[in-house]
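For this section, I looked closely at the sequence of one protein beside the tokens encoding its backbone, which the following lines show:
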Amino acid sequence: MAESDDGMPHDRRTFFREAFAKLVQPVAEYVGTQIGAHLPAERAILRPPGALPETAFLETCLRCGNCVESCPADAIQSLQTDQPDLAETPYIDSDSQPCVVCDTLECMQVCPSGALQQLSVDEIQIGLAEVNYDICLRSKEVDCLACVESCPIGEKAIRLDSERRVEVLSVGCIGCGVCQYQCPTTPKSIVVRPTQEYLEAQED
């Protein structure tokens, strides 16, 4: 099997990178005419799986790029910003490419500083998905199941409640962002928020 410059087989990288892009949502035309094209709000910074709490993460991360280079989905990127404390730190933009919760969780394995802890899938907490029912297609009598059917965790993380609305389960959702990526509305009806941001919002 041919390899890329970083030693990752082309076939594997291509699979992860293009898997979601090939999924076409049947409600796409409806979304374009009914919801309208609005620019998304400023996105929160989501850290890779296993990241320490933000303050400890920024103090520990070496900005070495190992997790960025090893991610088979190309989901982890290096943050380009003028803020020196954040520059070159790894992050995930779920609108662009979500974490696919790969079997090996390679980003954790290659982190030399401990900024990314080695955790099991059940222990990962990148963030928590939150549904905006006002713009969710299901509130407009469209039987959209994009987020529910695409979740790699399954019904432990997301399902339909007794009223047939999308329900995110905090005990199961790891914040991978696949639901956000697959959501066909603009702006997104379901968005992953960093865990700390979500908890602070709940306290307000």
Summary: Residues 10-18 form the longest helix (9 residues).
